[in-house]
Amino acid sequence: MSDDTEFKPPEARSLPPWMATFADLMALLMCFFVLLLSFSEMDAMQFRRLAGSLAQAFGVQQEIRVDEVPKGTSIIAQEFSPGRPEPTPINEIFQSTDDITQMSLEVLCAQEYDIQRGEIDETGREAVTQRLEALIAQTEEAAADLAQRLESRIVSGQIEIETRGRQIIIRIREQGSFPSASAQLNPDYFDVMDEIRAVLMLKPGGIQVHGHTDSLPISSERFRSNWDLSSARAVSVAHELMRGDYLEERRFQVSGFSDTRPLATNATPDGRARNRRVEIVIRQGLDDELTDEELELLRSTEGEDIMRDLDLEPDYIFDLDEDEVF
After folding, report:
1. How many angstroms separate the CA atoms of 308 and 132, rounded?
2. CB 310 within 8 A of CB 163
3. Does 5 fall in a domain?
4. What are the two backbone dihedrals, phi and then psi, of residue 16, each rounded to the nearest 5 degrees?
């Protein structure tokens, strides 16, 4: 090549004309989606799940306090707000989804703690209260129907019927039901037991038979104390009710209370006669009547207050099996 030849650099290649239009389109699309996100309302739990996914995908994700974001303000709007504080230092950035899981568990535990402390939503409390009142009304209707069937025995003074919450109490009075200091049921009461048995066959719930005495002590060859006498009388009534296998034995619970639960004073003959009695208690549960959420609410501190106000006892409302309903 001759030294006189002039060197000319190669001509630079220019970008295709469509690249400028494509770059403008991408920029406009990005601005459009940013605006859409800024106008949306971010759900806190949804953002936590999104943050967990990003942390798993990229290995690191900056923690954003979602609970400090005002309602109606998106995360994007907070990120680009003029008064936004300095970013979190690198040592406060969580590294894996384990932190997200821990945060979710803390939220659930806090909600459970609020329920246990009795901080129940007012609407839910009123709904459960109304539901319980309706169930108690059903029990009262069942007791009224039972009283109508046993009207002649009530008029004669042989039995009494009352309700207490979800309980129906059939009280066999002392008038000739048992001889003095004896647990042998008077044959005159066999017909009464037949009528009560026929009614119990139609009523769902567990059956408890409670024996009670007055405060006068007893000591004989058969009964060492009023505890023995009250228990033996309750067993006699239970055996009579179970005669003929019309009622399943596993529905029954038999107890003797001696003179610990008097209805009247033991200082007078009339009061002692009223205290000598056997009570047949039909205990209707709530398991089949309420939802799991309502039952969980009733197990809380405030739920116990609701049941106490409605004369419901926590020890018997959850003990009814499905196959005990006839």
Report:
1. 12
2. no
3. no
4. -65, 150
pLDDT digits (tens, 9 = 90+) for 270-295: 999 999 999 999 988 776 677 777 77
Same domain membership, residue 281 and residue 153 = yes
Q: What is the mean pLDDT of residues 237-259?
A: 93
- Overall domain count for the chain: 2
Domain that holds residue 49: 18-116
Q: Report yes or no: 146 and 204 within 8 Å, Cβ to Cβ.
A: no
Alpha-carbon dihedral of residues 147, 152, 157, 158, nearest 10 degrees?
A: -80
Q: Does pLDDT of 248 surpass 70?
A: yes
- Distance CA(70)–CA(41), nearest Å, equals 10
Residue 3 in any domain: the answer is: no
Strand partners, 281: 169, 208
Q: Is residue 317 pLDDT above 50, yes or no?
A: no
Which of 116, 146, 171 is the C-terminal boundary of a domain? 116
* CATH, residue 156: 3.30.1330.60
Cα(246)–Cα(320) distance, integer angstroms: 18
Structure tokens at 62: 């900056």
Q: SS3 for 85?
A: coil
Mean pLDDT of 96-106: 51
Judge if 65 and 106 occupy the same domain: yes
